[in-house]
Design brief:
alpha/beta, four-stranded mixed sheet, 20% strand, Rossmann fold, five-stranded antiparallel sheet, 2 domains
Amino acid sequence: MTVRTAYLAGDGFVDELAHELGDAYLGHGRLLIAAGPPRLTAWAANVWLDPQEIVVASISDAATKLRALQRNWAVYAPRLHRRATLIQEQLPKVSAKPLVFSAPPPSAPLGSWTLLDAETILAAPHCSSPFPNGEIRFVEDRTGPPSRAYLKLWEALTLIGRRPAPGEICLDLGSSPGGWSGALQQMGTHVISVDRAALAPEIARLPSIEHRRESVFARRLAASPPFPARNSVTCSTTSTSSLGSNRVRIKQMLSASSFLRKAGIRGPGPRPSPG
C-alpha cells in the first residue's frame, strides 16, 4: 500500500503549505495530500497520519465504520457540510470545553475525517494534534489584555510544551500594545518590551515590564544585547497588521534571530550547566 500523509493548513495559509510540500497531489479545502511519510511542516495546523479512504453506503454506515476504527473523531467539512454533520452526530461526543492555559493538552487519541464525496470518507485515526483540526480554544481573559493577541502566545507555548519560568527574562519584539508582554509578565517573568509605539496604559504600569521605545530593526539594539544569555529565555513577536506580507514577517523574524544570536540566546532546550 502506498504511504501518504494529509496536511491541514492553518486558516489562510493553503498556498504557503502547498509551496512547502511541493508535491501535494490532492487538495480538499485546506487539506492537502502528499505521498510519503509525514514531514516537518511550518504551515500545517494538523497532520493526518496514514489516512485511508473508506467507501460508505449511508450516514449510519459511515458512523459505524468510523467507530470501528476508534472512538474519538473530529470532522473537517469544507464541502457536504450537512451530510458530514449528520455523520458526526452519530459518533461519540468529543469534549469542546475550552482549555485553561497551562493545563495539559488532551491525552486521548483524536482522529480526523472528511467527506471527499457523498460516498467516500478520508479518515486518519491518528493525527499530530490532540485538538480538533489543530485549533486550540482557551478560556479567555476578557478583562486584562488590550487585545486578543495573547492567545497566539498561549497557543505557541502550549504546542511546544514549554513556558517561561518565574524570574526568567523575556524579550518581546514589536510589542505594542502589549498583549504578549502582559501575558509574559503574568507568568512571573521580567519582560523587555521593544516597540517605538506606546504600550497600553494598563500594560505599561505593570511591574517587571521594561518598555524600550526603539525600532525592532535598530542597529543599536542589535549591537547591544540588553541581558545575559545564561539566565534568559526569549519570546519574539512581530506586529504585521499594518504591514501585511509574509515577506515582512520573515524579515522581522530574521532580524530578531540575528539579534538573539549576537546575545548568545538559545531557544527552548537543554540549558548549559552553571560555571
